[in-house]
Amino acid sequence: MPISTSAVSGHTVCVTGAGGFIASWLVKLLLQKGYTVRGTVRNADDQKNAHLKELEGAKERLSLFSADLLDFDSLKAAITGCDGVFHTASPVTDDPEKVEQAIIGTKNVMAAAAEAKVRRVVFTSSIGTVYMNPNRSPDAVVDESCWSDLEFCKNTKNWYCYAKTIAEQTAWEVAKEQGVDLVVVNPMLVLGPLLQAGVNASVVHIMKYLTGSAKTYVNAVQGYVDVKDVAKAHVLVYETPSASGRYICVESMLHRGELVEILTKFFPEYPIPTKCSDEVNPKKKPYKYTVEKLKSLGMEFTPIKQCIYETVKSLQEKGHLPLPSQFQH
């Protein structure tokens, strides 16, 4: 059974990269549930972390630590005295130079957690560590036992999946060596309303179809999940004693054609592309996957249409997207 709210008062957890898209929602949820939260950020006084200080319960139970993932001592200061750690900080990058940083950062967090004897570490990984495998049959169901093929990631220059896969494998190795109870969440592309001021990489995925910068859509499929659900999944696997291993986290897969259709239905005023850039090849099909493992813990997902609608509304409210009335036809 998940820990009851009364039981978590006095529980202290650390969230790395607390100002990020997923992490901000995670901090919000943890505070709502009564946890005391320590968030690591690059610079605690930076204006871009101001949204965290405004969260309900933040004044009483949130402290921000300026920490660098490459600096073990700064992480140790934040993690020492915590019951649990949520490691969400990781560079979203296609830069092969950053691969090393993701590995060192993961090692440092895991080592600090081991020294602090935390109860459990929850690691934010990605579906990118799971599905990149050219030898998988189209009928095979992608589940938590699947791993991306590192050589394939390298050869296709997919450095994001490469870095994520190596970082997750590193986390498992250190967990085993140092006896850390590790649970991993592997979300697909994360959408939803923004708490932070700036726009993050995954939300740009939708924004480009509304600003007129994308004239066509690609022949591709993508799995989507609501950011609030990803935060919920992190807390669920942290609070469920029997949770172990990896958990794929996704609500549904859409072809880009379906995505633009949903956007057009909700927001017809925007210059949303109607043409596919590839009209020669057959329409790409989604691969089969399962989220039964997460659902078995009681997880329920927000329907993706609702999530897409809320994402766009949030972009409008934050001033990242002009309101339809401001469009010159």
What does this structure look like?
With 329 residues, this protein is an alpha/beta fold. It has a domain at 10-190 and 227-250 and 286-301: NAD(P)-binding Rossmann-like Domain (Rossmann fold), CATH 3.40.50.720. It has 13 helices and twelve strands. It has helices at residues 5-8, 21-32, 50-53, 58-61, 72-79, 99-115, 150-155, 159-178, 201-207, 227-239, 256-266, 292-295, 304-317, and strands at residues 12-16, 36-41, 62-66, 84-87, 120-124, 141-142, 182-187, 189-191, 221-226, 245-249, 252-255, 288-289. Strands 3-2-1-4-5-7-10 form a seven-stranded parallel sheet, sandwiched between helices. α2 (21-32) packs across α10, α5 (72-79) packs across α6 (99-115) and α6 (99-115) runs parallel beside α8. It is globular and about 55 Å long.
How are the elements arranged and paired?
Elements: H1 5-8, E1 12-16, H2 21-32, E2 36-41, H3 50-53, H4 58-61, E3 62-66, H5 72-79, E4 84-87, H6 99-115, E5 120-124, E6 141-142, H7 150-155, H8 159-178, E7 182-187, E8 189-191, H9 201-207, E9 221-226, H10 227-239, E10 245-249, E11 252-255, H11 256-266, E12 288-289, H12 292-295, H13 304-317
Helix pairs in contact: 2-10, 5-6, 6-8
Keywords:
12 strands; 329 residues; Rossmann fold; single chain; 7-stranded parallel sheet; alpha/beta; 13 helices
Strand order of the largest sheet: 3-2-1-4-5-7-10
- Low-pLDDT runs of 5+ residues are none
> Helical segment tally?
13
Largest sheet: 7 strands, parallel
General form = globular
Distance between the termini: 55 Å
Proportion of residues in extended strands: 15-25%
Would you identify the CATH architecture of one domain?
Answer: 3-Layer(aba) Sandwich
Q: What is the N-to-C succession of helices and strands?
A: HEHEHHEHEHEEHHEEHEHEEHEHH
> Could you name the CATH topology of one domain?
Rossmann fold
CATH superfamily of one domain: NAD(P)-binding Rossmann-like Domain
What's the number of extended β-strand segments? Answer: 12
Mean pLDDT metric: 92
Question: Mind telling me the CATH class of one domain?
Answer: Alpha Beta
Cα Rg:
20 Å
Return the structural class: alpha/beta
Protein name: cinnamoyl-CoA reductase
Pathway: Aromatic compound metabolism; phenylpropanoid biosynthesis
InterPro entries: Epimerase_deHydtase, NAD(P)-bd_dom_sf, NAD(P)_dehydrat-like
Organism: Cucurbita maxima
